[in-house]
Amino acid sequence: MFEALTIAGWGDMDFNAHMRNTAYLDKAVDVRMQFFAANQFPISEFTRLRIGPVVMRDDVEYFREVHLMEPLRVVLKLVGMSEDGSRFQVRNEFFRGDWQLAARITSTGGWFDLTQRKLIAPPDNLLRTFRKLGEGYEVRVLPSSIKESAVGNTMDVT
């Protein structure tokens, strides 16, 4: 688990003076990147390795309104991962200043090789780092994003 503090800023508001749905998604990604940076995986390391996380699905649930300048505590957890780490599911929970759950985002993704333009299993040090998010929690086993090709020993993305 990883926690970060933020606020609902001016640019995060919608017409009804509530935090807009895409602002939650933006903040969820920011917290994920903060986790990696805090664990020796800054953006520069992803750039050097030519890989990056890619989200294929976001499920958003709303529970309480969040208003302008309200503090938010954002919790990030790993809730699912394939054995090879090629597919993952993370959950961001947003708690308001009164510590009530405001929203939950569950994101399913994988690791994208920017040179080969396909999903891959992450390098061992990144996999170990990512597994830290699941410590102390039950992490569901997901199917791999990679499967053996019918021709030779090459790997293809499903």
Automatic annotation (TrEMBL):
The keyword RNA-binding does not apply. One of its GO terms (molecular function) is hydrolase activity. InterPro entries: HotDog_dom_sf. Transmembrane segments: none annotated. Keywords: Hydrolase. It comes from the Bacteria. Gene3D superfamilies: Hotdog Thioesterase. This is Acyl-CoA thioester hydrolase. The lineage of its organism: Bacteria, Pseudomonadati, Pseudomonadota, Gammaproteobacteria, Pseudomonadales.
